[in-house]
């Protein structure tokens, strides 16, 4: 060491010599342990694979391959782990490398042929099976698989011929067998998906296209098509997820980015509109859904949805006539939509058109007989219809069902003054005025009392003796407001009533 501290050329040479010695020692240590380490990794990989601990087994086989890249068995064993993990695409290069290192390794050829057959690659699969049969002509598995490869090739040609002839049903039928033999072939699934699209069955097309996104390394076309299909079905969140996957593969993909902007804008509007409804901000929700119809006017689902939700919001803010118009348009667009029928029924109730409300609830029940909400709505509409044929306090005062207390009192005062019995001379007129005046007073009593009004709105007359516990009062005339009974006042009526 002392000699290496000398300056000059001899010092540099001395340092280099020491460095070489150190490196040589390190390399000798690695090379000396390599065989042992590789055997250890292979043994651990075998045990872990047998125990089903695939990820841990794979890690050891990675180390074994790195330690000895010329061992065909190591590649073959790692391929077996990939296959056990369902990663056939990763297994294929290892099997190919094993065959390159040992061309007569027939087990690898048979395994590779099976993978290639499942991927729909008939030509290369046939070559592997024929290589096995050349060595072992009676090999049953190779014989069977070769026959399947030939069958697959014929079926593929038949399917494409039927498709080009426009016979999509026949194409689908043939592809059933094709996909049974080659489940990892994306082209067959994509072709069947295209047939389903042309036959108007997008849901089945989605089922076929979804696995193809994993069967190809870069399947932006499938992600885009899936996004478009979900979008057409009104499934905007799923559409957004798929188009984002496309952009993960290539953020500059023009088709995917263009569609992404459209879906993102529409999805944001729809989510915002529903949030406004949840918060009870119905007018703002109406405005947002009108924006939705401007953003997407070509896809019927979104226009129908917007009309349905605007119909709902108009009922909530008690704009009966506007609600009836919008709900009727929504019903025409989607006649089997029970939500629209329910909301229009509620709009009819607001407008005191109980027969129409009953009709809508009946129709909704035909489409959804299990809905408690529809059953309860029908029951209430029928009670209100029955009640309206007896005595409708809203009609008596000439106010709408959404009238507030101030509007009710104002209407009552005007009618009470008009029908005061003292305003009439003949006995017959006074009798008629009595009846009118009592009805007006009863209407005011019920509609200005929150609890009684709630009962009446639910289809129950709180002043009907049949609905009152204890009955009494004879003739149903008990409990008159303003502390008088005009039927006991004789021929000359002098009514005293208070406005409150």
Order of helices and strands: HHHHHHHHHHHHHHHHHHHHHHH
Based on secondary structure, the structural category is: mainly alpha
Mean pLDDT: 87
Q: Give the proportion of residues in helices.
A: over 70%
End-to-end separation in angstroms reads 115 Å
Describe the 3D structure.
- By secondary structure, the protein is an all-alpha fold.
- Helices cover 73% and strands 0% of the residues.
- The chain has 23 helices and no strands.
- The longest helix is centred in the first third of the chain and has 42 residues, at 9-50.
- The radius of gyration is 42 Å and the shape is elongated.
Task: Name a few traits of the molecule.
23 helices; elongated
């Amino acid at each position: 060491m002392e000699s290496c501290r000398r300056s000059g050329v001899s010092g540099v040479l001395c340092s280099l010599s020491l460095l070489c010695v150190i490196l040589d020692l390190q390399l000798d240590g690695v090379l000396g342990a390599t065989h042992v380490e590789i055997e250890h990794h292979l043994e651990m990989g075998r045990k872990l694979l047998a125990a089903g601990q695939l990820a841990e087994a794979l890690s050891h086989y990675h180390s074994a391959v790195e330690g000895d890249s010329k061992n065909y068995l190591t590649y073959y064993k790692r391929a077996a782990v990939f296959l056990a993990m369902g990663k056939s695409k990763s297994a294929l290069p290892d099997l190919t490398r094993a065959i390159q290192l040992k061309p007569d390794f027939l087990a690898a050829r048979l395994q590779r042929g099976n993978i290639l057959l499942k991927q729909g690659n008939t030509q290369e699969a046939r070559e592997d099976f024929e290589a096995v049969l050349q060595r072992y002509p009676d090999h049953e598995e190779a014989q069977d698989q070769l026959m399947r490869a030939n069958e697959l090739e014929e079926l593929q040609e038949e399917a494409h011929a039927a498709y080009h002839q426009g016979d999509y049903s026949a194409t689908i039928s043939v592809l059933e067998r094709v996909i049974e033999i080659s489940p990892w072939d994306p082209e067959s699934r994509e072709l069947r998906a295209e047939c389903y699209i042309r036959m108007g069955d997008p849901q089945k097309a989605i089922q076929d296209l979804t696995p193809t996104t994993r069967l190809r390394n870069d399947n932006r076309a499938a992600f885009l098509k899936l996004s478009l299909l979900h979008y057409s079905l009104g499934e905007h969140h799923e559409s957004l997820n798929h188009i984002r996957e496309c952009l993960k593969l290539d953020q500059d993909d023009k088709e995917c980015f263009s569609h992404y902007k459209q879906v993102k804008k529409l999805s944001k509007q729809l989510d915002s509109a529903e949030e406004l409804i949840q918060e009870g901000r119905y007018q703002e929700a109406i405005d947002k859904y009108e924006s939705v119809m401007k953003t997407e006017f070509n896809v019927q689902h979104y226009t129908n949805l917007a009309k349905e939700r605007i119909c709902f919001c108009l009922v909530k803010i008690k704009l009966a006539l506007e609600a009836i118009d919008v709900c009727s348009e929504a019903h025409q667009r989607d006649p089997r939509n029970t939500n629209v029928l329910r909301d229009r029924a509620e709009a009819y109730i607001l407008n005191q058109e109980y027969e129409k409300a009953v009709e809508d609830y009946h129709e909704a029940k035909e489409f959804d007989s299990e809905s408690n909400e529809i059953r309860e709505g029908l029951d209430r509409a029928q009670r209100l219809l029955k009640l309206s044929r007896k005595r409708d306090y809203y009609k008596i005062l000439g106010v709408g069902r959404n009238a507030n207390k101030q509007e009710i009192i104002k209407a009552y005062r005007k009618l009470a003054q008009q029908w005061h019995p003292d305003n009439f001379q003949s006995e017959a007129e006074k009798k008629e005025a009595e009846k009118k005046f009592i009805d007006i007073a009863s209407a005011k009593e019920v509609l200005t009392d929150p609890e009684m009004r709630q009962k009446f709105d639910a289809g129950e007359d709180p002043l009907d003796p049949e609905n009152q516990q204890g009955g009494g009062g004879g003739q149903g005339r008990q409990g008159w407001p303003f502390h008088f009974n005009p039927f006991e006042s004789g021929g000359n009526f002098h009514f005293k009533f208070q406005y409150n």
